From TrEMBL:
InterPro entries: Alkylbase_DNA_Glycosylase/TA, DNA_glycosylase. One of its GO terms (biological process) is base-excision repair, AP site formation. This is DNA-3-methyladenine glycosylase 2 family protein. Residues 1-34 are annotated as: Disordered. The keyword DNA damage applies. It comes from Streptomyces nitrosporeus. GO terms for cellular component: cytoplasm; protein-DNA complex. One of its GO terms (molecular function) is alkylated DNA binding. SUPFAM superfamilies: DNA-glycosylase (SSF48150). Gene3D superfamilies: Hypothetical protein, domain 2 (1.10.340.30). Keywords: DNA damage, DNA repair.
């Protein structure tokens, strides 16, 4: 369905009221889109959230979702909510507003071929039936998923989320529009551009708890940012190969990135600490499964292995925890 657009409004002060409490500035553009089937915004957009205080993402109790992105046209803020009749109401602000609204259907899984999925296990079939609104998103933006995925390499999620939060708030830019008035204590931020990432000094990486190996991987990636962004238009094998040309980016990081940037239904995450055991326990009762066993269990879902893995995670059938949680590391002082 064609978008519905509203004219631009004059510039407004940075500090804005919380939505619903006074008048917020009108969006640069707006759009209403009707999805081709059931759509659960929480399930679709959830993979974009990097921790409860992600400065680029906010989910409100009323079912409204906010996202700040650095698009090919510049920074932009997107607000998305679902109407009772199933239509999606979206608005956007900033230089990237048009790009965000033009790519809204792809972001929300319009290109996701859900009909290609055939459950082969009772647990997967039941979860698939109970989650009809699950679609695999596609942002079309590689770097914004690659960098936080690199930060998550071989550390606890809390460490990675803290690093992402500190680096984006320190070196990013406030999101355009009214997003700085959202509840939660902090406004939204757009992540830094490639040049700004490249100029972050070593002590800032250290302050964020990022070791030299991960920061060096990010620095190598941003130097060829344009070439990496081209992977968003590639098929999965070519996109994976393109990302893995960068030293420090392996199968785990490539899969975690392409699941989001490309909506890659078959980008199964190998090399993960927990996923093989979860899949093994859910499908075969084997909590000690490794990557080889996981891939064998997911083989019937060839072409849709990431979707199958997501459904397994959503089923809630996970092995009981035995080992204590990993403790955050203290990287060596400068």
């Amino acid at each position: 369905m064609a978008g519905r657009f509203t004219p631009r409004t004059p510039a407004v002060p940075r500090r804005q009221p919380v939505p619903g409490q006074g008048r917020a500035p009108a969006p640069s553009r707006a759009r209403i889109w009707t999805p081709p089937g059931p759509l659960d915004l929480r399930l679709v957009l959830g993979p974009l959230r990097r921790g409860p205080a992600d400065p680029t993402y906010r989910a409100l109790p009323d079912g409204t979702f906010w996202r700040a992105s650095r698009t090919p046209d510049g920074p932009g803020t997107l607000r998305v909510s679902a109407a009772p009749d199933g239509r999606i109401d979206a608005a956007a602000w900033g230089p990237g507003a048009g790009w965000l609204l033009d790519t809204l259907p792809a972001l929300l899984g319009a290109g996701d071929d859900t009909g290609a999925f055939r459950p082969r296990h009772r647990l997967v079939a039941l979860t698939h039936h109970r989650r009809p609104g699950l679609r695999l998103l596609r942002t079309g933006l590689v770097l914004e998923s690659l960098i936080p995925s690199v930060l998550e390499q071989k550390v606890t999620t809390d460490e990675a989320y803290r690093a992402w939060r500190l680096l984006v708030r320190t070196h990013g830019t406030p999101a355009p529009g009214p997003a700085d008035g959202l509840p939660g204590g902090h406004g939204l931020y757009v992540m830094p551009d490639a040049r700004t990432w490249a100029l972050i000094p070593s002590w800032e990486w250290h302050r964020a708890g990022v070791d030299a190996k991960r920061s060096a991987t990010i620095l190598r990636a941003v130097r060829v940012a344009r070439r990496l962004e081209e992977a968003a238009a590639m098929d999965l094998p070519e996109a994976t190969a393109r990302l893995q040309l960068i030293p420090g980016i392996g199968p785990w990081t490539a899969a975690e990135t392409l699941q989001r940037s490309n909506g890659a239904a078959d980008a199964v995450t190998v090399g993960d600490l927990h996923l093989p055991g979860i899949v093994g326990y859910a499908l075969a009762g084997d909590r000690n499964a490794g990557d080889e066993e996981m891939l064998a269990l997911l083989a019937p879902y060839e072409g849709q292995r990431h979707r199958a893995a997501r459904l397994i995670l959503l089923s809630g059938r996970t092995p009981p925890r035995r080992a204590p949680r990993a403790s955050p590391r203290d990287i060596a002082p400068l």
